[in-house]
Design brief:
Helices cover 42% and strands 26% of the residues. The chain has 10 helices and 10 strands. The protein has helices spanning 5-19, 22-31, 47-54, 70-79, 96-103, 123-131, 158-173, 187-197, 223-238, 246-261, and strands at 37-41, 61-67, 87-93, 109-115, 134-153, 176-177, 180-181, 201-207, 210-212, 266-278. Helix 9 (223-238) runs antiparallel to helix 10 (246-261). The protein is globular, with a radius of gyration of 19 Å. The structure holds S-adenosylmethionine.
């Protein structure tokens, strides 16, 4: 399997479309200012601005999308070539914290979006910095925040399945970025407290679980690749893990891959979405 992150992010779009919490999504629509200046951090290949345009959430806007992987920004440039000209798009390959240093005290936005992103961060340390980029009264939409459940069906070996899930989540909790802890496998539920501690107001919150399964015509769109990428990610995260028997784990991965080929694998990830205001 070719490990292609931009393709994974593109394949994830239909999964996200089904998952996004409808109540929180409609609250975003209702609260969206006219002609907003929007900033999206960790924007990947640009599927969120595409979705906002497709669903007519924004007709006239400026939209700044940043991501620290230049291959994602290159894919976004191609993908978004046909966005209406009334949406003035600015795409930049830059690290979030460098961007914050450049913009702090100089520029602020009406709406801040972080989609499938905050769970990679040290959230309590990052939120105040992110909010410094929002105008007083600005809106934030933080969607697809992972929240501690990875379920794969059918079971292979329930004890081993549970151990792999637990160790996989532990790798998220112990992740270091530039030597600093960043990541939380229960970001979703913890955001209630982190947002309150950052003085933000929550307007709406709700579950946004990914649920991927094969229907009568197999997996939809490119979701077979999405699942292959998820299984590969679990493999890479745990391949050298001392608590796992190498041969048994490799066999487990082989069986998961075979379940995908047979259209049997069901994948569920529990996540939460938030819409709120930054009082400033
Ligand atoms: C799970 S992906 C989600 C991407 C996109 N929001 C989506 O859902 O399709 C997380 C993204 O955050 C980006 N990222 C991670 N750390 C970053 C940082 N420090 N600054 C900017 N982007 C970052 C990654 O390159 C990746 O594209």
């Amino acid at each position: 399997m070719i490990y292609d992150f931009p393709r994974y992010l593109a394949a994830k779009k239909t999964v996200d479309d089904r998952a996004l919490n409808a109540h929180v999504w409609q609250a975003l629509r209702q609260n969206m200012p006219a002609r907003p200046h929007i900033l999206e951090v960790g924007a990947g290949v640009g599927t969120m601005v595409e979705r906002l345009d497709e669903q007519q959430f924004i007709s006239s806007a400026t939209y700044t999308a940043i991501d620290n992987q230049s291959e994602n920004i290159a894919a976004a440039l191609q993908r978004l070539a046909h966005l209406p000209q009334t949406i003035q798009l600015s795409l930049e390959a830059v690290d979030l914290f460098d961007f914050i240093r450049q913009k702090q005290g100089k520029q602020q936005w009406d709406v801040l979006i972080a989609h499938a992103f905050l769970d990679l961060m040290d959230i309590p340390a990052t939120l105040p910095q992110l909010f410094s980029l929002l105008k007083p009264g600005g809106l934030f939409y933080f969607s697809i925040n992972f929240d501690g459940v990875t379920a794969l069906e059918p079971a292979i070996n329930p004890a081993l399945d549970a151990q792999i899930e637990q160790l996989y989540h532990q790798t998220m909790d112990e992740r270091l970025t530039n030597g600093k802890p960043s990541g939380d496998s229960r970001s979703g539920r913890h955001l209630f407290t982190h947002l309150r501690q950052a003085s933000a107001t929550i307007l709406a919150a709700g579950g946004s679980d990914w649920v991927v399964f094969a229907g009568e015509n197999g997996y939809v769109a490119d979701e077979k690749y999405f699942l292959q990428f998820i299984v590969e990610t679990i493999y890479r995260a745990l391949a050298e893990h001392p608590a796992l028997d190498t041969v048994q784990f490799a066999d487990w991965i082989t069986q998961r891959r075979a379940q995908i080929e047979a259209g049997e694998l069901v994948y569920i990830a529990h996540q939460l979405d938030f819409l709120g205001r930054w009082p400033g």
